[in-house]
Amino acid sequence: MSQTDSSGVSFLSLARDAAKTVINTLNPYDKFAVVTFATTAQVFSSTIPNGDCYSSSFAQATPQNIARVEEFINGIQASGATYYSRALNSAFAYFSNNPTADRDRVILFMSDGEPTDDTAIETLNTLNDNVGNSVVLLTYGMGSGTDFSVLRNMANATSTQVGTIQKRGIFTQITTPSNLRNEMASYYTFFTVTGQVTDVPIWTVPYLDAFGLGLLITASLPVYINDNLVGVAAVDLTIEELLADVSFFKPTQTSYSFVINDRGLIINHPNFPYITNNDPLFVEATAFERDENFLSVFESMKRGDSGNKTFVSTKVLPQGDSTMYGVREVTVRSTYFWQQIPETTFSLCLVLVEEQTQALLQNQGSVSTGGFLYHRIDLVPPRQACHHSENYCSIGESSIALAARSFQDPELYLATEETAGDVNAIVDYMEGRSNNRVNIKEGIKNVVVATQIANQFWNSSSDGEVNRRVLWRYIGTSDGIFRNFPGTQMPSNFDPVLRDWYEHAQANPGKIAITPPYSDAASGESVITLTRVLFEGQSGGNHDALTDVSIGAMGVDIVTTYFYYLLQTEYPACGDGSYSCLLIDQGGFVIIAPQFLDENTNHYDRHLADLEPSVASVLIDNNVLQTKTCTNVASGLVQKTYFISSTQAFYSGTTGELNCRIFELSPLSGTNAFLLTIGTTVVPCVSVIHNCDCNLVSSPSGAIATPSCPSATLCTCPCTTYNTEFQPCYNNYSFTSPQPCTPETPELNLVATTTVDLSSLPVCYEIDFNSPGTSGSVSVGLIVGCVLGGIALLFFLGAWYDHHQRKKKSSALPSQTQTQSRPPPPPPQFTVQPTAPPTNHYQNVNFAPDQVNYVPPPPPYSSL
Question: Could you tell me which of 128, 133, 150, 132 has the C-alpha nearest to residue 141?
Answer without folding.
Answer: 150
